[in-house]
Amino acid sequence: MPDATTVLEKDRQDPLKAFRERFVLPDGVIYLDGNSLGVLPAGMSRRIAEVVEREWGERLVRGWNDAGWIDLPARVAGKIARLVGAGDGTVAVGDSTSVNVFKTLSAALALRPDRRVILSDSNNFPTDLYIADGLARLIGQGYELRTAMAADMDDAIDASVAAVLLTEVDYRTGWRYDMAQTTRRIHAAGALAIWDLCHSAGAFPVHLEEADADFAIGCGYKYLNGGPGAPAFLYVAPRHLEGIRPALSGWMGHQAPFAFTADYAPAEGIARMTVGTPPVLSMSALDAALDAFDGVDMELVRAKSQDLCDLFIAEVEAHCPELELVTPRERSQRGSQVSFRHPEGYAIMQALIAEGVIGDFRAPDILRFGMTPLYLSHGDVARAAEILGRIMGEKRWDRPEFRTRAKVT
Ligand SMILES: *Cc1c(COP(=O)(O)O)cnc(C)c1O
After folding, report:
1. pTM score, whole prediction
2. In the predicted model, what is the mean pLDDT of residues 377-399?
3. pLDDT tens for residues 130-189?
4. Topology of 48-293 in CATH?
5. How would residue 1 be classed by pLDDT, with cut points 50, 70 and 90?
6. At CA 251, angle to CA 246 and CA 257, rounded to 5?
7. CB 96 within 8 A of CB 131
8. Which of 1, 31, 51, 227 makes the best surface tag, with the fewest CB within 10 Å?
9. What is the pLDDT of residue 2?
10. Which residues make up the binding site for pyridoxal 5'-phosphate (predicted)?
């Protein structure tokens, strides 16, 4: 056990501790799953009730103009741009991450028409691989998805590659690519870089422009706390904006949607990457959620996230020698999560959740714990490790009910 006073002292001196009030967490729960579904921001219920009752209920279709619904995606995009190091007019919000992989990847391929290979990481999140494979099959013409292990990525980037689709932080291990360095390597081979920021946006400072990324995509419901199924976002580097003709050429990305012309003409700039009517309710929730980042110094978030990861690793290793750490010990090489491997990982996680510590399980054997510094304290993390230690020591996970797999893990 670390000295309890040291943990207390760290929490007392925590420059982010006041932000805890911006979130609502259930009593008796230590939430280490903000990397899968962010928590409820304070004031959300009121805001959503207002949108439903005042805007939808009273304004009805007039809400598109007088409640500003039509401009809501662009407003939300501005808030996200600040968190990912992107300039004005380079981020669009809407659809899911999966759909945005399709949109950005199809745009990237069209910018490198003489190349046929999409390169990705063998351990990338499956939807990224599935969408890339589906797109390659849809286009035909010799397009293919090729994958390589992260350690072999540099060698795999050659002159046949049109676009490299990588997730900055590995969703299982928490291992993190060096985005700037890998992007340089991709550009040196004449290919384009598409970064998936699902485990980056809102977790630590992201510098898309500085890293010279070509495209990016990311999730609204993980570290951004936009709520289950929140709209996702995408980024296009300014140099590519005017050269893209979207594959999903929907009316909301048209130059003049309400001219109702039969021919498609892309809107100026990033607006062309929007497809259909925005989901106003969930977009309003994401909009409100992003206000929780007002005045937040993301460098402080990063520093505390790494402190929490270090503390959790040390405590779990002290209490649970049978769990194998799969996340890098080196701070710069990881995102904002800590993962351990155990053959009975699923049952262990269910036992842990039953005791109020919520993390998640990723097949085949990974116990995953997300660190979200705006609402977690050092005390929470130390306590979670202590409870995990008790579950392991007393084999409390070894019960049939903890082995029954639910649909969502
Ligand atoms: C969570 C996640 C997704 C999710 O995609 P959805 O379309 O929202 O289901 C995609 N990619 C990565 C890397 C993720 O972590």
Report:
1. 0.97
2. 97
3. 999 999 999 999 999 999 999 999 999 999 999 999 999 999 999 999 999 999 999 999
4. Aspartate Aminotransferase; domain 2 (3.40.640)
5. low
6. 125
7. no
8. 1
9. 65
10. 97-98, 125-128, 167, 196, 199, 221, 251, 277
* Contact present, 340 and 321 (Cβ < 8 Å): no
Buried b / exposed e along 275-296 (16+ C-beta atoms within 10 A)? beebbbebbbbbbbbbebbeeb
Ranges of each domain in the chain: 4-31+297-403, 48-293
**Within 13 Å, how many C-alpha atoms sit on residue 59's CB side?**
16
Minimum CA distance residue for ligand 1 atom 13? 125
Stated as kind and residue range, the H or E segment containing 369 is strand 366-370
Active site residue 125: yes
List, for residues 34-43, the tens digit of each pLDDT value.
999 999 999 9
What pLDDT is stored for residue 4 in this prediction? 77
8 Å CB contact between 167 and 206: no
Size (the chain), residues: 409
What SS3 class is residue 254?
strand
Is residue 217 within 8 A of residue 78, CB to CB? The reply is: no
| 3-class secondary-structure state, position 203 | coil
Which residues on neighbouring strands pair with residue 148, listed in sequence order? 121
Q: Which CATH class is domain 4-31+297-403?
A: alpha beta
Query: What residue owns the CA closest to ligand 1's atom 4?
Result: 97
Q: Which of 221, 235, 346, 369 is catalytic?
A: 221
